[in-house]
Each structure stands twice: as C-alpha cells, then as structure tokens.
Amino acid sequence: MSEDSIILHEKYGINGDTLYYKKGSNTIVCQKCNFSFQKLFLSVLNFFKQIVLPHGYPTSVSEDYLEYQLWDTVQAFCSTITNAFTTRAILKGMGVGNAEATALSATVAWILKDGTGMIGRILFAWWKGCDLDFDCKKWRFMADIINDMAMAIEIFIPIYFEYSMQILCVTSVLKSIVGVAGGATRASITHHQAIKENMAEISAIDGNQETLVNLVASMLSIFLLSVFDNRSMELVFIFALMSVHLLANYKAVKSIVFKKFNKQRLVILLKSYYNLGVILNPKPVNNMETVILGFGLNDVQFCGFEIKMGQSVKEMSKSYIPEELSQHLLNFEDKPYFILPNVKSGTIHVCFEKVESTKEIIEAYFYASLLAIAICWYYETDVDVIPKRYLHQTTPMSRLNTLMRSYERPPNDLYNIPISFHSTFRQFINSELKMFFTVLDLKEWDLKSSEICVGDYRTQWKMYLKKNV
After folding, report:
1. Are 94 and 235 in contact (CB under 8 A)?
2. Tell me, which fold does domain 65-255 have in CATH?
3. What is the pLDDT of the chain when averaged over all its residues?
4. Hey, where are the domains in the chain?
5. How many CB atoms lie within 10 A of CB 254?
6. Res 36 pLDDT > 80
7. How far apart are CA 365 and CA 338, in angstroms?
8. What is the full DSSP assignment across 316-368?
C-alpha cells in the first residue's frame, strides 16, 4: 500500500484492526492491511479479548486489573472443581442411591439448609456490613477461607450421614457469610478497577470470565469425578485443590493496589513518614498491608493509644473537670474536630463537628497519633518510633523529640497533662500538618474519599466556648 495515497488511518482500541483511507478516483477508499494468517490469528484473538476484557483495555481499568483477574481465574477454577466433589458428597449424605431414603426427608433437609443460610446472611450483613468496606482485602480473603472450611466439612457428610441435616445447616450459614462478604468486597474491588466510570461493564465482563472458567472446570470435573473412586486419593486431591485455591486468593488480594486510605494503610504511611520523613506511594503501602483478618499494624502498636473517631465522649467526660475541659476545647476553636486524650484508659477520642471530608479525617488522625506519641514520651512509655534524625535530615519524630525536651513530668502527676502543653502542641501540629499535606498532595493517593471507619456521633462545642471560659 502506497503511503502517498493515504489520507488517514484509524484503529479500533489498542489491539484492534487498522483501516486506511486513501485517495481513489473522485472517492475515498477504505482498505484493511493485506491478509495473512498472522492477521487472522490476531483478529480471532482480539474477538476473544472483547469477550473477556473490558472495552478499551488496558487504559479503561486500573493497573492491577490483569494480575488480579488472572489469580481470580485460578481460584475460581479450583473452587468449581472442589464444589463438584462436595456436591457428590452432599447428594450421598441426602440419600441418593439409598433405597431407604425418601424424597420428603431430602426436601425438608434442603429447605432447612436454605433457611438457615438466609438467616445467617441477614445477621452477618447487619453485624459486619460496615467492616467489609474498611477491610476489603481481609474480608475478601477471609470469605474464601470460610468457603473452603464449609466445603471441607461437606466432604465428610457421607461418613456422618446421620447428621447430614445438621452439617448442611452449619455449612449453609458459613456459605451465606461467604456470599455476603464475597459479593460486597467484589463490588468494592470492581469500583476500584473502574477508572473510567465503567463499573457496570467491568462487572458484566467479570461475569463472563467466571462463567467461562466455571464451564471449563465443570467439564473437567465430570472426568475427575469418574477417575477418583478411591476415598483417600480423593481427599488428597481435594485438599491439594483447596491449597492452590487459597494461594491464588492470597496472591489476588495482595495484587490489588488501593489508592484510598483505610486505617491500616494510613498507619503504614504515617509510620514511614514519622520515622523517615518519607511519604510512600500507594503500591509499597499496599504491599506492606496485611490481608489476614485480625492481623496488621493497629493504633496501639503504632502510637501507644487506641484512637476512636466519631464515638460518644460520655465516658471520656468523666476524666475532666468542667474548667479543664472548656480550656482544652479552646485549642480546637478553629478546627472541625477536637481531640480528647484519656491517659488512664489509653484511648484518644476524635470528635467531629459535622460531616467530615477525607482530608479532615486524615488531619484528625495525624493530630491524634502525634499527640499519642507525645503523651507516651511525656509519661516515659515505650512506643515504636525513632526519635532521631534520619540520614542527617529532620523528621516529625526528631522535631517532636525536640519539643518534648522542654516538658518534664512532675513526680505526682499521674494522668493529667498540663493545659499549656496542648496550646504549644497545637502550634507544632499546625506546621507539621502543612508540611505533610504539601507532600501528600503530590503523591498518587486518592483523597476524594476514604475507607476509614468513623462513628456517627457529631459534637457541637464552639457555640458554648465563650459562655464556659
């Protein structure tokens, strides 16, 4: 094709066909590249990609999309095959092949199984619904652990067939938890992947991928069910599949790079910043994030205090006398929040004035955590921070250490911090906050929203300051 006659060319997406528009005799001619088997193969491959990948891939999805989906495909493949073996075990336990079993007893057991599952789904959604957003990765991985636990129990139903109904009720509750946790966390992950507001399409394509994997795995499981007639070999094979399933799930959730803060990601970032003066990008922070429920860096390990945000101050108010509390609140007359430390209980309350923005949540946590470290130093309590310079550069911890040297705790002072300290600390924190957000704004973090748990209590105090001071 002569380039002299070409007026323009266009291409469908990144990997699609290229069309050339060239000069004809008083017309514009549209022409594809010359045919070849390589181009035919690429055309078939592109058609397959359109079925299993979102429109505009890879620019229409997050950078971690492909790695997550590959591992998710592996875990779905293993889960489908394992589920085929558990289905056979359930049917044996329900009496299939047993002349003494009746259709009525099997139907009643099935209804009870479904009923307990429905109750479990309702109760779990009420109990842990909020946590699914705040700890998406942990609950995603936990859902698959629970799913494998349920299937492992169901495998032994033929051995304990007299308790099949009770076992099925228990596993149905477990699987209802999996359904709620898995569905909710998958929606959160899809929202993260949809960088061009194409969440519905990504969800539909994910359904295509899962259906295709389940179809292939189901066909293979028919063969495998006929092959494994030895009980011991079957159990070895099933538990090997479960191990691969859990490994694939672990790799999948670890591959996700969320750019929004939850409590653990914020703590990891602040610990690095406090000790080294470095604000990390989302990828290294996500790599350090723990995905196992019940583990990971928390408030107490980080700063020595438990930080509660948006909770009632009913219990905290008993630790202050009226004049002292009013004087303390004056330090926050220009803030949309105030912070109350309780040294005796080891907690710090962050109380918001109204609906808070993500930046205000991060600012309040920054304030509270630095205050917690300062209090620990004031009372000579161990806390896992480095109070020295890093590579001859000052850090928030080295600057805080300099400030704290001017404060010495009186021998009889057990749980009271001088009011004057809070006033001095406010000036210190304002300069630290300015430096922190100047650098944070240059990083890749999404500050439009967050996944940090904040309670529903909102507190008004500014209107009463002049009256009470």
Report:
1. no
2. Growth Hormone; Chain: A; (1.20.1250)
3. 87
4. 3-52, 65-255, 263-468
5. 19
6. no
7. 11
8. GGGGS-HHHHHHHHGGGTTSSEEEEEETTTTEEEEEESSSPPHHHHHHHHHHH
